[in-house]
Amino acid sequence: MARESEFLALGDEALRAVIGPNSRHIALIEDRFKVLVETPGGGVSINGSARDRAQAKRVIEILADRADQGVEITEADVRTALGAAVAQPRAGQGSVAPDAVALPVGRRGAIAPKTAAQARYLELLSRCELTFGVGPAGTGKTFLAAAYGASLLRRGQVDRLVITRPAVEAGEKLGFLPGDLNEKVDPYLAPIWEALNDILGPDDVRRRRDKGEIEAAPIAFMRGRTLSHAFIIVDEAQNLTRLQMKMVLTRLGEGARMVVTGDPSQIDLLNRRDSGLPHALRILEEVKGVGVLKFEAQDVVRHAMVERIVRAYDADAAAPSPDLEEPRR
User: How far does Cα 246 stand from its chain's mean position?
Assistant: First the structure.
């Protein structure tokens, strides 16, 4: 098949994003499509077969469009764009919708969905009073919930951001934790604080916590409260019991929104059937004002290895359990 060159003009910001640190992004594109991508100035030159050039061009255009929106381009963005360009996306998968809106709250630029599933998730967050984001680790369900809540807080659309999760250890006993309430709860909320620090900056997060605009509390402290004009994030919800789930869902007050995130495959309760997340999804999915987004392995944006790990565990869970080997004598 004949190999020809095609030039694609790009602005300076888009060009830097497409090249990536130490030309890493270009290397990923070249490796996937067996093309040669050069940067003669003012854009990129793509050399390869017609099909490979078309796919590489699509990836570059996706990355350039996101860079022009002010989004910081990472390797996760490149991997997502590569996957979208390989074949025509199946329903519910593939590239991000063209009209997907970025959240202008990130310290390093706007935060935009990386996959079509993330775009639908943000759309549900903007439209529904109660949203469930469920699926494997690394799909961005907690990070995007924190980003969306931070954007509402910055725009004054809510008075506070309330974060809660069950204090259930993942298979190990941590023992007594010293300190005040925040010091006891913070270790369990590390992923949320990391996300908010990345989005707002540690100083802004600390200031808003001191003013009560950002509040963290364990599930047990939610009982009896009415949370009005707030955005509530219920994280690690697979470890809520059915009674705890009902209790926290009914905390919604006037002008409040809630997002519930969790991974039903990582239940740490002694009795997995006690989990309130699968139960809530079953009885609430069709209720008016409730949105449900179920992420899958192909939506993992954390690291390519995470997606492969999730797929391996999913395949193992779907396979018949092998008979136990007879003990050797």
Answer: 25
> Do 276 and 237 contact (CB within 8 A), yes or no?
yes
Output the six-digit token pair for 288: 């008016």
Q: What is the DSSP string of 73-130?
A: P-HHHHHHHHHHHHSPPPTT-SSPPTTPPPBTT-TTSBB--SSHHHHHHHHHHHH-SE
75-86 residue pLDDT tens: 878 887 887 676
85-94, 106-115, 282-291 — which is least confidently predicted? 85-94
Under DSSP, is residue 193 helix (H, G, I), strand (E, B) or coil?
Answer: helix
d(CA 328, CA 237): 42
Question: In sequence order, what DSSP letters do the residues of 123-161 get, joined into one string?
Answer: HHHHH-SEEEEE-STTSSHHHHHHHHHHHHHHTTSSSEE
Q: Kindly list the distances between the CA atom of residue 137 and the CA atoms of 174, 268, 309, in Å, as whole numbers in the listed order.
A: 22, 15, 10
Instruction: Report DSSP state, residue 255.
Output: T
Per DSSP, the three-state class of 218 is: strand
- Sheet with 43-48: strands ordered across: 4-9, 43-48, 36-38
Helix (H, G, I), strand (E, B) or coil at 8: strand
CB atoms within 10 A of CB 278: 17
CA distance 133 to 178: 32
Q: Which of 29-38, 76-85, 160-169 has the lowest mean pLDDT?
A: 76-85
Pairing mode, strands 43-48 and 4-9 = antiparallel
Q: Beta-carbon neighbour count of residue 257 at 10 Å?
A: 24
Is the pTM value of this prediction over 0.85? no
72 Cα distance to chain centroid? 15
Residue 41: CB atoms within 10 A of its CB come to 8
